[in-house]
Every structure is written in C-alpha cells, then in structure tokens.
Amino acid sequence: MAKVDWIAQASARFNGGGSKAPSSMTSQEIADLVESRHDHTKRSIERLANQGVIQLPPLGEVKNHLGQTVSHYVFEGEQGKRDSIIVVAQLSPVFTARLVDRWQELEGSKRPMTGLEFARLQVQLYEEIERKERESETLRITLDESKQWSSVKRMEAKLCRRFDWKPLKDWSDENEIDIQKVFDQNYGTVNAYRADAWRAVYGIEIDG
C-alpha cells in the first residue's frame, strides 16, 4: 500500500484546490505564533537548513515600529508551508496546530483538518525530520566531521599530537564496535573510530 503524504495533502487543503497566488509567512510571524524571540527563531531556521532538513527561505526586509530596517525569512508556496511546519515542530510542537490554523486563515481554507488528519501530519513530520537528521549525520561521518566518529588524522590535526590507530582498532574489535570509512584526500578513505573508543583508549572527547 502506498504511503500517504499527509503533509502534501495538508498543503493542498490550505490552498483549497485553487490556483490563487501563494500566501507567505515570515519568520517574525512564526516567532510571534510560538511566543519566541525572532533571533532565536531565525537561528533555528538556519540550523535546520544547514542540516538539510529544510530549504533556507529567502530573506526579506521590513520597517519595524521604530523605523528601523529588519530582515526576516519568508516562507512561501508548498515548500514554504512544509518547512514552516517543520520549524515549529522543532521549536515548540504544542504550537504546530496554531501554525496550521494560521496557514488556513492566510489561504482561505474552507474545511479545517480533523484531529486524526492532524495527528497523522505530526507523525509524518517527525518521521521526515528524523530521516533528514540521519542522512545529515551519515554525511558528517563520511566527511569526517561527526561528533560521534573520528579518524586518527582528524584528531591529530585537532590536538597537535600523534595517535596510534592500532589500540583504537583493537578496542573496537574487542567490543564489537563498527569502524566507519571516511573520505581522505590522500588515501581515498581512512578508518574512523567511535567516540567510545577514543574515550576508552586515550581519555579524550571527539567534540571536546
């Protein structure tokens, strides 16, 4: 049975099936909805975009009540709706329903989502976030940038000292811990050892 994309269905519902111009929502509006500071909201948006979970929306500028020019992110169209819901789900899940209601107001939806539809939407949101985060961590491991795995070469460059790889491999084998392959510009790939191995053998933290 094909998996139903409840996020896409919700987005279609917001549009009411029409072809009118897309509505938009700013990061300032999202901050107001979740009762958060705008700078905190913008940082969350940038973090999720850097992790590949959402697309970084374009920046816009407005004048605030003091006449100062301030920048905000603008979420627009189907991608904007999807990404804004993910942002709110990360910032404060209890406000996700409020965001959905706001999109419905903006786009004149005629029928609100049922409780079951909204629950399904939330489940798929979390599944999508987890999948994107797993993909992002896999990429960090491959590029030898993970906080959970590190090659000897990376730690030597970071701490300016030499490390023998053999004790790390022996400990990993003895404890049945996988050894990852990471990219290296000189050798193609080299071994990366888990943080547990570095901690047990050398008493150091990868991200310390």
Unreliable residue stretches:
1-21
Count of strand segments: 6
Which band does the percent of strand residues land in?
5-15%
Helix/strand structural class: alpha+beta
Query: How many domains make up the coordinates?
Result: 2
Shape: elongated
| Separate helix tally | 9
Order of helices and strands: HEHHEEHHHEHHEEH
Helix content: 40-55%
How far apart the termini lie comes to: 47 Å
What's the Cα radius of gyration? 22 Å
- Major beta sheet summary: 3 strands, antiparallel
- For the biggest β-sheet, the strand order reads 1-3-2
Estimate the mean pLDDT confidence: 76
Description:
- This protein is an alpha+beta fold and about 210 residues long.
- It has two domains: about 5-140, no CATH class; about 150-200.
- Helix content is about 55%, strand content about 15%.
- The chain has nine helices and six strands; from the N terminus they run H-E-H-H-E-E-H-H-H-E-H-H-E-E-H.
- It has helices at about 5-15, 25-35, 40-50, 75-90, 95-105, 115-140, 150-160, 165-175, 195-200, and strands at about 25, 60-65, 70-75, 150, 180-185, 190-195.
- The strands form two sheets. Strands 1-3-2 form a three-stranded antiparallel beta sheet.
- Strand 5 and strand 6 (about 190-195) form a beta hairpin.
- Helix 2 crosses helix 3 (about 40-50), helix 4 (about 75-90) packs antiparallel against helix 5 (about 95-105) and helix 8 packs across helix 9.
- The protein is elongated and about 65 Å long.
- It starts with 5 loop residues before the first helix and ends in a 6-residue tail after the last helix.
- Residues about 1-20 have low confidence and may be disordered.
